[in-house]
């Protein structure tokens, strides 16, 4: 049932007509996906993740991404991998349940409707996590969605 509440699609950040990266999020993580240039050995790529900053580059070249993150992350739980020509960066949210409007500050922000849809999906994901025997995949909110971090006493940490 939880997979029904997983991100349905990736959000794309496009700059000057070129896709810079795609991303999605869960209650605990923000995932970034970057298509890598062909013909460059994977060992030359690097990704540096700090609590509030990310840098992606090919060694010996200026950074492809060099931005502050939208919100702080737990650096000891963040990692990156390369598979099938794509860099996948997993950022562990410092504040579980916080809805991010973009992975990086000031770039590729979700429009208000998409941000509300994300918050609703994360709220349902929280309900599913706390009540594993129930299926919330078809649930709907009649008005504004509450903040999943604070609704009814906040997210339980086990």
From TrEMBL:
GO process terms (BP): protein folding
GO cellular component: cytoplasm
Domain of life: Eukaryota
PROSITE patterns noted in UniProt: CS
InterPro entries recorded: CS_dom, HSP20-like_chaperone, NudC_fam
Single Gene Ontology MF annotation: unfolded protein binding
Domain CS: 16-104
Name the UniProt record assigns to this protein: CS domain-containing protein
Species annotation: Eleusine coracana subsp. coracana
